Amino acid sequence: MRIVSRQGGRLFWAACLCLQLVACGAMAETSAQISQQELITRIEAGTAPLILDVRTPEEYEAGHIPGAINIHFREIGERLHEIPQDVPIVVYCERSIRANIATRTLREAGVDSLLHLEGDISLWRKHDLPLEHDSSSSSTSEVPTEFSELVKSLDQRWIVSAAEAKRLIEQGATLLDTRKLALTRLQNSVYADWRQFSPQAVADRGKLLEQEDLLTQQIQEMGISRQMPVVVFANPPKGWGEDGRIVWMLRTLGHSQVVMVDGGVEALVDAGVPVQSGQSHPPKRGDFVVERNSTWEIQRDQLQAELGQDKLVVIDTREAREFAGKTPYGEQRGGHIPGAINLYFKEFLGQDGQLLPLDIIQAKLDEAKITPDTQVVVYCTGGIRSGWLAAVLVTLGYDVKNYAGSMWEWSAAPADSYPLEML
């Protein structure tokens, strides 16, 4: 996705904010839109319609459009009594997907006077329009005062543009470089290898270590702290999705502000992030402590038990030859998990290493019958490529879990209990 042009430095998803088609189902309707300028004019004149923020309470508390009320999009149906049906309603989220689902729910309930805020709150922030904050929230009071609105938005965003990453780095974010072989390093970057956080046993090497004290020690040694964002980058055209794996890992271990950079190292250099000159120094030890969050991971036996369920889509993010049965990376058996579909992770990247435009990504997901109501499980050989796709899908608002054990673990288990299909 060309989130940031080489010259323009546009913010993440700005090129795609006009997309109105809901990712859910086959809904063909789109909402009428209200422009950012029209809404702020009406707010200032005291004639604003009802403004409905359908993001999470945490996102709302971190900053919302003045006067907006907050009802999470998945709670619309049970909280219809809180929404007047005889007044115009402006609906927004971060990047339109949740707002479109909320709009569909409201329409089905008979609410007709609906407007979708053009560009949602991401464009509102880009234009530096006013925001309100819930000052009574303990979560916002813990955020250091020098953090920008960008930092506060990262709870639900796993990908940022190079320009946004540069701002985070300038504010003190920890910078992780997942490239193993690199002639140059970016200033103050720390090398991060996913392997150091995984067991050495062949069948388990895609999984995360179970020893939380060891994980905490390793992460602290990289300079990672709880209240400081972490920016992760790679070389997407030549990589394996290592940046997405590290983002998925740190999120799963409890850090809520970890992002990868769209376009990777080249985009960062183009954005003006300086290259390291001279010898680098070890980072100051961080204070992050592991507190696991199982939201985005699934274990082998849980996946086995859920295979074949409605609303479950299993995505094999490997190459077509691997999906068909080749075993080039040490799998003990070839094939793919029964019922899985094949979406190679690099199908979502352009030649420049940036994500494809949102409408193209959406078309791929629609063709695969993947909607925000779908439970998605992604896997690959060892949870690396699938970790990257998980980061993309989470950012787009999908319910996704990464099976980190992936084929290394599944293929090592008894074939009668953990079968594989071949093409």
UniProtKB/TrEMBL annotation:
Q: Which Pfam families does this one have? A: Rhodanese
Position of the signal peptide: 1-28
What's in the keyword line of the UniProt record? Answer: Repeat, Signal
Q: Does the keyword Acetylation apply?
A: no
List GO molecular-function terms, semicolon-separated: thiosulfate-cyanide sulfurtransferase activity
Catalytic reaction(s) noted: thiosulfate + hydrogen cyanide = thiocyanate + sulfite + 2 H(+)
The kind of enzyme this is, by top-level EC class, is transferase
Please state the Enzyme Commission number of this protein. Answer: 2.8.1.1
Which parts of the sequence belong to the Rhodanese domain?
A: 45-133, 169-277, 308-419
This protein is called thiosulfate sulfurtransferase
